[in-house]
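Handoff note, outgoing to incoming analyst
You'll be picking up this chain. Sequence as last confirmed:
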Amino acid sequence: MLNSFWKYNIFWLLWLCLITYLSNAKGDGIPDFPLLAFKGADKLVHAIFYLNLMVAMSWGFFKQEKYPNLNSNKFLYSFLFCITWGGLMELCQLFVFTYRSAEWADFLTNSIGAGIGLFICASLWKLNKNA
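Most recent structure output, in case you need it:
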């Protein structure tokens, strides 16, 4: 049986693996999606990926009971992790996976997605506390 940390945090960890793979895979290893064939689709995907990471991580930190500090600082830790990971992926593209292109715009979009996720989480948390 999984302890409460892994039980509630496995989703964002798997999502993080997907983000990491897609951020560093060769272009021919990523499937094409016709719905995402418009200008700026790449940035939309970045924002959605990091928004989902932020929400899933915050939820996992909230639900787990093993580390009380994670629970009480769920939004801060999740947001900082998302921004740091987004930056790390861009640095990996710049220095390690040089067949990918590192872009400041991607880092900014990752951060915006995490920021939107933070806003959603904090708003829902406040609504739930007031209910």
